[in-house]
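User: Last request for today: this protein with pyridoxal-5'-phosphate, please.
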Amino acid sequence: MNAPEKHWTLLKSSDVHGDWLAAHWMPFTGNRDFKANPRLFGAAKGAYYQTLDGRQVFDGLSGLWCVGLGHGRQELVDAISRQAAQLDYSPAFQFGHPASFELANRIVSRMPAGSDLNRVFFTGSGSEAADTSLKMARAYWRAKGQGSKTRLIGRVKGYHGVNFGGISVGGLPANRKLFGQGIEADHLPHTQPANGSFHRGMPPPQMTLAEELLNLINLHDASNIAAVIVEPFAGSAGVIIPPQGYLQRLREICTQHHILLIFDEVISGFGRSGAWTGAEAFGVTPDLLNFAKQVTNGVQPLGGVVAKQDIYDTFMAAGGPDYMLEFAHGYTYSAHPVACAAGIAALELMEKEDGLQRVRELAPHLERAVHGLQGVKHVADVRNFGLAAGITVLSMPGEPARRPYEVAMRMFAKGFYVRYGGDTIQLAPPFISTPAEIDRLVAALAETFEEQP
Ligand SMILES: Cc1ncc(COP(=O)(O)O)c(C=O)c1O
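Assistant: Here's the final one, the structure of the complex with pyridoxal-5'-phosphate:
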């Protein structure tokens, strides 16, 4: 492959050619389309990306829901470089370093008060957090002498990353259909209201949805079920908000039938919900809580699972002699020192800038703005919670994903990055956005919908 003549950090769009682009098989990307029409960012600051040609693009999804505090934060750059200079890597197994213990303590202190969620297992990503939590759930019951409790219950339209556990409990058909047999799972129905509902925040109670868990328990028997995993609000399927009372009812049923409840808070955690956790925002405490993304403000890959103390203690009690492993699981990059340093600095920055308060102040503004899309051409429904919103787009016959793609591409040409997924457009502006920036984003979206045939 011919390399461009310049150093890669200095490239302009005109230097980039298909031959050079070919080597990278890009994730969740239409590779043929991208390589014909590359969209490359060269820099980012605050709430804006800069393309290789210097065009400013508003970051309407905080990267992938992970850069709430904005780009290019000097505090994070400094923390990463200090840590990399002092201890760039330390073996994740059998040895430790201070940054992981410090970060674990800081994460625990942000769990809902009195929740007992106080043991943190680190991973490198949200997908790894999902599979870690599912393995923890199965191994927990086995340690308690109830090894038949293996089935995992997810939810239609759920997203728990892309590893085999995650796609088995996940409920997005496109992410499952290529990959054959998953692991033993079943699914609750999704909670997305019918098109045209335009609920602001949480939809009214619809108890039959949570009661469906009782039907699954009837079918499989609680003695065979390890855990239920849900996102407090679903992000990737298009921002789907639970009806009032839904999560409470899932909690009650899980407790009553001795089934663990896992919240996948990879999107809802660390600020996006207007609280440190979706658990706190919705007032429901899970047994295991998964996080990633915003924990480092996206500057380093890091995820993890926060477990209730009883779960940790059960593993310790069943662990055999002290030198033995209690949980044969972990990753080379579990608690990577540079990622942990980034996490500590990102949590500090959230506190210093009162990120939660910013989200709480901006959320009603985003709600008003996005619900102004009701009546706009092609807009079938709008949903919102915290600083996240999803718009269902009326489908072209036989091509549900086409119009959102066209809209997102047109938005990019106008200087706005938004996510398209399935038949939806998704928004999650940075916490540091101004109300005027949110207005401009939504106005551009309205204009773009109206332009579509
Ligand atoms: C709820 C949820 N879980 C898991 C993941 C997967 O995270 P990652 O892409 O870091 O593996 C995501 C990513 O969007 C997510 O939204």
